[in-house]
Amino acid sequence: EDLYSLVPHDFTECAGGVFHQVSYHTCKRYHLPVQDRGVFVVESGFGFGLELPYHAIVAAVQGQKVGRLEDFQVALSGVADGETFEVSWFNPTTNERRTKRSSMRMER
Asked: Quick check: pTM over 0.85?
């Protein structure tokens, strides 16, 4: 596979947070599979900051699996402003990799 295609080139901003596809380098560092790797939280922002750490990997939004950045964008587009929604995520930097769930409030 072309390694250039595994480097994130697109970003999504929402509620002051910045997100991108998990990079090849992050997968390699934390021993993650490259396929359907999820979305990396670059900056939590004011909307996600209290519940979602900046280095987390988002696995699902509203029960919809998030394997690519496009999946994340589609899932967030279905959440109305002010609505509460659930995000499933895990922290790749710890030995405990269990999926956690947090309730967020959409701030557009």
From this structure: yes
Q: In whole angstroms, what is the distance from residue 89 CA to residue 39 CA? A: 9
Using CA atoms, how far apart are residues 95 and 23, in angstroms rounded to an integer?
20
Sequence-ordered list of residues with C-beta below 8 angstroms from that of 13, at least 6 positions apart, any chain: 19, 45
Closest CA to 50 of 21, 13, 15: 15
**Residue pLDDT, tens place only, 2-11:** 778 888 889 9
Nearest alpha-carbon partner for 91 in 13, 32, 18: 32
Per-residue exposure over 53-89, b if at least 16 CB sit within 10 Å of its own CB, e if not: eeebbbbbbeeeebbbbebbbebbeebeeeeebebbb
